[in-house]
Amino acid sequence: MDFNLNLILGQMVLGLVNGAFYAILSLGLSIIFGLLGVINFAHGVFFMLGAFAAYMLSEVFGIGYWPALILVPLMIGALGVVVEVTLIRSLYKLDHLYGLLLTLGLAFAIEGLIRIVFGPQGLPYSIPDSLRGAINLGFMFLPYYRAWVVIAGIILCLSVWLVIERTPLGAKLRAATDNPQMVQAFGINVPVMLTLTYAAGVALAGIGGVMAAPIMSVDPAMGTNIVIVVFAVVVIGGMGSIFGSILTGLALGLLEGFTKAVFAEASSTVIFVVMVIVLIARPRGLFGKMA
Amino acid sequence: MKRSTKFVAAAVAALVAASAAQAEVTIGYLGALTGAQADMTGEAALHATRMAIADFGGEVNGEPIEVLVADHAGKPDLGLATAREWVDAEGVNLILNVDNSAVALAVSDLIKDKNVTMAMGASSSRLINESCGPHQIMLLLDNGTLARAVTLPQLEAGAKDWYFITVDYALGHDLEAQATKAIEANGGTVKGSVVHSPQATDFSSFLLQAQSSGATNIALATFGAWQNAIAKQAQEFGVQQSLSPFYLADTDIKSAGLDTLQNVTGTIQFYWDENDATRAFSDRFREDFGRPPTFTNAYHYEFTTHYLKAIEATGGTDADAIQAWMRDNPMALINGDTATIREDGAVVRDVLSYRTKTLAESTGDWDFLEITGKVDGESIAQPLADSACPLVASN
Amino acid sequence: MTLADMKQMTPSHPMAETALHPLGFSRARFILFVVTALAVVIAPFVLYPIFLMKIYCFIIFAVAYNLLLGYTGLMSFGHAAFWGMGAYLTAYSAANWGFGFEAALLTGTVTGAALGLIFGLVAIRRTGLYFAMITLALAQMVYFICLQSPFTGGEDGVQGVPRGSLLGLVDLNNDWNLYWLVGTILLGTIILSNRVVHSPFGQVLRAIRNNPARAKSLGYNVDRYKLCAFVMSAALAGFAGGLKAIIFQIATLTDVSTVASTEAVLITLVGGIGTIFGPAVGSIIVLSLEHYLAPFGPWVMFTQGVVFVFFVLVFRKGLLGEFQSYFKTSL
């Protein structure tokens, strides 16, 4: 094994692409967890649905990538509203674990349904024409589309973070996370807020799905595959920490890329190894508050 | 071994239905109805099997032919459990499809001394060597044969330097090892290889490694959705090397999009647009199923027909007699050729070399391949003299 | 973290009603036990014995899981690791080291316990969702290790596991001999689980589940009790996995994958969290569903999902849980 610096750099750039997906997904999970106290096991399924929705828009209506980037999160968000109102809402008074069980079941049912309708095989979705081609970074050939995913992913995550940290809406959200009764007393409609938060969280996963469609195989298992890693990211970052999940997502993407260049066999395990180390050294996660 | 007592016990336990089932011919279709290869084979090969039964008249020697269906989902435990139940309680005569090496190995053990035939779409070379069986037939090319079929024509054409992207399954490792052997024996070199996990969706980093390796060909010792993703990403990263897939079915090209798989060369057992005979068959198949048959669909039709002929000729369901008949008589193929079944269970048949068409060359929905030649089956098959199968006479 | 609405599901002084009946069962449970025993005797003459044995293994697995979730209040998402590694080590030791039936099964059980201790030391201080996530991630790591270690045989699994014989006397290659053995083990496990639940140890566990702070203030070392319950559950899960490997003569990646963990959760949920006979009812339903829907491919996954959602929303206490709150008894 030769330690080719160009290769390492290249792999780390690509790792950042994965990191962007980890960040988008773990951000959505963290927001939902922070406010609803639900570990959304269906998160990966919404990611997958985002990709399938983009595919359907293009196949059936001829709607391309850019409009899909707006339309799909709206569709997935709407689905999120339906799911929250009809299913999840009734569980808030109960133990949080029931929320986990419900969303796990939901994930099974939706993935099963997609398999029944679309079959198990991957579906094609093209890179938008405006982002075809690649840029030569000297140490690697970086496709424009991947560069776009990294930049757009980071901007998306940071804007969500800014909204939560710096706007009145975000302040209400944070307050509701800490003390829902108090916020309710101030005349804020907490149930609506919870619904919209869930919708926003899964809409983020939907955007992730659209962004992933051109570069990953659009298949029913795509969500399940990535979400297991994202759960580890959330545990490492500290559950419910918004900024922590963004940073951890990107950093672990980088680490994974680095491992691929240096010791490829370990690349699928490295995140879980980090997780165990973090859990032993700092059980609440890198950015988590004390439970 | 107390197999006999087990049989008696099973017979006591099984209801009257089971003994009634003994009288007819029962085919157990044990396939992947979900998972990476379900689209290529799954329901489609089942349809081909039913077509063969219907074309045969729906019965053999006056007995109805029953088909049982189950999904092994790529899990040897599940496949073995189903096969065991079929053998113990349903009196199955033929276990068909078994398109997974792990499942096939497990079932192989099970049926060794039973009156059951297994015709499998698994490719582990072990299944025609150490783990061959008296009633077992490998419908797919084994990994060694497939590796030679894919690499030899390209080595001859001057592609000497190879890089492997291998799925972290026994199948992937076996395929890589066999292909490496073939490449090195014929003056080529393997520049490197990388293993991808079954969870992988992003292959760009592997392609980056392949790119920097200086290889002329990237061999894809993987299949299905992973392979599609690799092809897609290779195009995106402007990978100049040729991709050499081992398992590329029409359904894969359809799924990945022909634009990502243009000018790929390889070999295949059957292509729907080869000649008038294959087109006629494919039209009939397509009428009911909506798409042309893949190579796995075709061999299900071919083998089922051959098997029913054997039952007719031997006048019963004795697995030994059926196996002997099937070996002694050539198996008719859809394209007009014939194939032979050897004592190690391998099916020796000529295979087609192809080049995938460019978008400009393709005329329609399923017009993907240009057939560039035929590889003589004998020339790529593992010589019987090298076989580790105890059933081979010379051993 | 306590599962709030489960507090009422088991009476607070079960010892009072159990003392009167044989095998340590309450009256209602004793009736159910007799029914179960009769079913074990009659079933193989009607249904395929190997399918029944599979159900029994999953019942034992679910009993192990329920011991933790139902009576200690800890929801693990990593039980596949114990069940799967138990299966692997049992299979491997029988196939490659020439271990007999008992020694191989013991190896699997000890593997489950050892792994449970490791998981427990990392995870036991966390509760609720944190505990679930950590056990999930740890199990995922075990899965990746199994995928890459040569001893598991990759996708092939460990095949051709010899069944051996019981104490060198009874040939277990005979399905009927094996069936009676597994049936007996199942009934023994149910008796054992009832005993554990009603032992002083089980009472402390339930006190911890219902109110950890109070248990602590009474002087119990809460973490140690939880760890002990976790290791016990892991050992029993490893035992069940090993038994399954012997019956089917194979151990594979399926057993260590998340699927096995979710199956344990689903079975327990359907049967009734924190009931002695819930795992049996749950296993029968969940495995039959899988078995009879198997020809329809992805419908299995869809149906399992719908069952999950349905039970969480409507029958949260599981079938036996609803039954016992209706009849005001413990099952």
Secondary-structure map:
The complex is a heterotrimer of chains A (291), B (395) and C (331).
Chain A: H1 5-36, H2 43-61, H3 65-86, H4 96-118, E1 134-136, E2 141-143, H5 144-166, H6 168-178, H7 180-185, H8 190-212, H9 222-237, H10 242-262, H11 270-281
Antiparallel strand pairs in A: 1-2
Chain B: H1 3-13, H2 16-23, E1 25-31, H3 42-55, E2 59-60, E3 63-71, H4 76-90, E4 94-97, H5 101-111, E5 117-120, E6 136-138, H6 143-156, E7 161-167, H7 170-185, E8 189-196, H8 204-213, E9 217-221, H9 224-236, E10 242-245, H10 250-256, E11 265-268, H11 276-289, H12 295-314, H13 319-328, E12 331-332, E13 338-341, E14 347-348, E15 351-356, E16 369-375, H14 377-380
Parallel strand pairs in B: 1-3, 1-4, 4-5, 5-6, 7-8, 7-9, 9-10
Antiparallel strand pairs in B: 2-3, 11-15, 12-13, 13-14, 15-16
Helix pairs in contact in B: 3-12, 4-5, 6-7, 9-10, 12-13
Chain C: H1 14-18, H2 27-42, H3 49-72, H4 79-96, H5 101-123, H6 128-148, E1 165-166, E2 170-171, H7 175-198, H8 200-210, H9 212-217, H10 222-248, H11 253-256, H12 258-271, H13 278-293, H14 299-313, H15 318-327
Antiparallel strand pairs in C: 1-2
Helix pairs in contact in C: 2-7, 3-7, 3-10, 3-12, 3-13, 4-5, 4-10, 4-12, 5-10, 7-8, 8-10, 12-13, 12-15, 13-14
How would you describe this protein?
The complex is a heterotrimer of chains A (291), B (395) and C (331). Chain A has 11 helices and 2 strands, in the order ααααββααααααα. Chain A is mostly helical and 291 residues long. Chain A has a single domain, classed as Orthogonal Bundle (ABC transporter involved in vitamin B12 uptake, BtuC), CATH 1.10.3470. Chain A has a two-stranded antiparallel ribbon with strand order 1-2. In chain A, strand 1 and strand 2 form a beta hairpin. In chain A, helix 1 packs across helix 9, helix 5 crosses helix 6 (168-178) and helix 9 (222-237) runs parallel beside helix 11. The longest helix of chain A has 32 residues, at 5-36. The mean pLDDT of chain A is 86. Chain B has 2 domains: 3-141 and 276-349, Response regulator (Rossmann fold, 3-Layer(aba) Sandwich); 144-268 and 350-380, 3-Layer(aba) Sandwich (Rossmann fold), CATH 3.40.50.2300. Chain B has helices at 3-13, 16-23, 42-55, 76-90, 101-111, 143-156, 170-185, 204-213, 224-236, 250-256, 276-289, 295-314, 319-328, 377-380, and strands spanning 25-31, 59-60, 63-71, 94-97, 117-120, 136-138, 161-167, 189-196, 217-221, 242-245, 265-268, 331-332, 338-341, 347-348, 351-356, 369-375. In chain B, strands 2-3-1-4-5-6 form a 6-stranded mixed beta sheet, sandwiched between helices. A 4-stranded parallel beta sheet of chain B has the order 8-7-9-10, sandwiched between helices. Chain B has a 3-stranded antiparallel beta sheet with strand order 11-15-16. In chain B, helix 4 runs parallel beside helix 5. The radius of gyration of chain B is 21 Å and the shape is globular. Chain C is mainly α and 331 residues long. Chain C has one domain (4-327): ABC transporter involved in vitamin B12 uptake, BtuC. Chain C contains 15 helices and 2 strands. Chain C has helices at 14-18, 27-42, 49-72, 79-96, 101-123, 128-148, 175-198, 200-210, 212-217, 222-248, 253-256, 258-271, 278-293, 299-313, 318-327, and strands spanning 165-166, 170-171. Chain C has a two-stranded antiparallel ribbon with strand order 1-2. The chains are: A mainly alpha (291), B alpha/beta (395), C mainly alpha (331). Chains in contact: A-B, A-C, B-C. Chains A and C meet through helix 4, helix 9 and helix 11 of A and helix 6, helix 12 and helix 14 of C.
